[in-house]
């Protein structure tokens, strides 16, 4: 994993997921001649926390599978995030807003069933409109003063353009896994 901007101190969910996926759990090697630590301060708290985690591991795994489903389908993060952030800056979005939109998954969820008619044009179904409406609502929550920054009908069209740009950037790199 490569940190895009060390000064931003913000990672996307996809970057964190990829890091955790490649990180192998294990015990660090002991230094030569080192003695094991005898400090038992907080042992009861640790045992309590570990037992809680073990008891709730199944719930946690099912939760993370549900929450990260769109993250797993995203292509390699190094190939598209910086490009997408640059494209979104053209719409006046800050890097933090762009990364938050990526983390929420605005425009990132797979569309599932793309229907194509005889003219090679995609039909827009009610599911696509509902997904776009949901993404627009998320956009307005994440972007500060979205109504003032994107006023009127022209602003709604620009918000839709941002979401379409996000979809096209991810789908354009989906073959680079």
From TrEMBL:
It comes from the Eukaryota. InterPro entries: Rpb4/RPC9 (IPR005574), Rpb4/RPC9_sf (IPR038324), RPC9 (IPR038846). This is Uncharacterized protein. GO terms for cellular component: RNA polymerase III complex. One of its GO terms (biological process) is transcription initiation at RNA polymerase III promoter.
